[in-house]
Amino acid sequence: MLNKIWIFLILAGVLIAAGNDIADEARNTYRNGIPLTAAIAVEHPPSVLTPTWQGEMSIPSALFAAFYGVPESGDVKETVTITTAPSGVSVMTIPVNESSPPQWKLMAQRSSSRDHLTATIDRIQWSGGASNGSVRFIVDPIRFVKLKAVTAAAIDWAAIAVNVVLGLVGVMALWLGLMRIAEEAGMLALLTRFLRPVTRFLFPDVPADHPAIAAIIMNTAANMLGLSNAATPLGLKAMEELNKLNPRAGTATNAMVTFLAINTGGFVIIPATAIAVRAAAGSVNPGIIIGTSIVGAGVATVAGIVASRLLQRLPMYRKEKEERHD
Q1: Is residue 166 domain-shared with residue 88, that is, in the same domain?
Q2: Do 46 and 165 lie in a common domain?
Q3: Average pLDDT value for residue range 300-304
Q4: Can you tell me whether residue 264 is helix, strand or coil?
Q5: Is the domain of 53 the same as that of 22?
Q6: What is the pTM of this model?
Q7: Rounded CA gap, 221 and 194, in Å?
Q8: Are 107 and 124 part of one and the same domain?
Q9: DSSP label at 90?
Q10: Which pLDDT tens digit goes with each residue over 240-264?
Q11: What is the tens place of the pLDDT at every residue in 116-151?
């Protein structure tokens, strides 16, 4: 079921991105293929002997806003570099920085290069050979912006996931090793006997020496240490053992419901996994969440236990009523 949800979310994201790209293409949001004229000034007019030169380009705010259909944000003034190839095609490189108009910043972010835009020059006219003139250029087309963003985000977050997982290996190995040592040393058996009054109160239908009790305690201990990945197989083992005591297959017993409430509440003393994730993500103080985690998970666990104990007393949820109707 979870895989189907993920597939649906991925397909929905791709379809939405494609729809936005089609809408941008229909509106020609980035004015692909449409020339824009700007004034240009140089110290000395370029010649055929200078295939690469720089000039000061300026575009009035009203002209720029009308061209892109955006609000005015001030006159555009950039130092551009123009390169003429042997074939005679001239290409203009427009730097994009903090002073650039928002529309060009957006276009640069969604192009192959983040710090500049590239345009093909359609025509350059000089005022009688002077150093002032005009340049008409066409910015390189920008298409499939949203689909590219989705693809880039998938790749970037895949790399982040790998880094986070590698960062978790050490923490997981440490705590799983400690739990294994505790099991081999008999500490878990001792803990089981120590917690027997608590487990007898929470799970009165389960024998005190049943394997389900040990699995429940190990699962709870793993959750209390914040080892959610280690707690998962222990939780499955506990449910498997509890199901052996279930007289009605397919119907959760009171013990199953109570254990699920405790497991879902996730009472934690040392949120090791969360701390490791925060540390791998570069948090300055990854352990600052310990206090809030204890309070939040503690309240959730108590609420879950109280709800399960109250609801199991209601006639509509009592197992004996279902057995009488059989």
Answers
A1: no
A2: no
A3: 89
A4: helix
A5: no
A6: 0.51
A7: 13
A8: yes
A9: E
A10: 888 888 887 777 888 898 888 888 8
A11: 999 999 888 887 666 788 999 999 998 888 888 888
Give the span between the Cα atoms of 299 and 261, in whole angstroms.
Answer: 12
Contacts 24+ apart (CB under 8 A), 107-115: 107/30, 107/139, 107/142, 110/142, 110/145, 110/148, 110/149, 111/140, 111/142
Could you list the residue range(s) of the whole structural domain that residue 45 is in? 31-141
What tokens appear for 9 in the block?
A: 């979310």
Instruction: For residues 37 and 70, state if they share a domain.
Output: yes
Looking at residue 59, what is its pLDDT? 94
Cβ–Cβ under 8 Å, residues 172 and 229: yes
* Boundary (domain end) residue, out of 141, 165, 189: 141
Q: Tell whether 223 and 175 lie within a shared domain.
A: yes
pLDDT digits (tens, 9 = 90+) for 197-238: 888 888 888 887 788 887 888 788 777 766 666 677 778 888
13 shares a domain with 36:
no
- The whole-number average pLDDT for the span 67-71 is 91
Phi and psi for 94 in degrees, rounded to 5?
A: -105, 115
d(CA 323, CA 314): 15
Q: Structurally, how many domains does the chain consist of?
A: 3
pLDDT tens for each residue of 153-204: 888 888 887 876 776 676 567 666 766 787 688 776 777 677 778 888 888 8
Tell me, yes or no, whether 158 and 244 share the same domain: yes
The two three-digit tokens of residue 8, written as one number: 């649906």
138 Cβ contact partners less than 8 Å away, ≥ 6 residues apart: 33, 34, 35, 36, 119, 120, 122
What is the 3-state secondary structure of 19-66? HHHHHHHHHCCCCCCCCEEEEEECCCCCCCCCCEEEEEEEECHHHHHH
